Amino acid sequence: MVTPAASERDPRYHTQKMQGELLEPVSHLRADIENVDEPKLKATFETAAEVLHGLQKALRDQEWKNDRAWQGDPSCPISASF
User: Fold this and answer.
1) Hey, where are the domains in the chain?
2) pTM (predicted TM-score)
3) Integer Cα distance of 29 and 76 in angstroms
4) Can you tell me the distance from the alpha carbon of 80 to that of 82, in angstroms, rounded to the nearest whole number?
């Protein structure tokens, strides 16, 4: 049985890796907005890029514990579950 390297057991390894993996699709979606004429498709691509960008931010916030949920903010509805 192969044991994962110590770095692979660190959650930051995975959050950083996923943030990097999301860069290309965001760039691709935004570049394709310029290549299509259909307004609804442009809006869909921009929305998808924003969602992926939000996921990158969520991963970064988790990594650095920046989000209100991680800081125990009582006004944050999900902080109680962490």
Assistant:
1) 25-81
2) 0.69
3) 32
4) 6
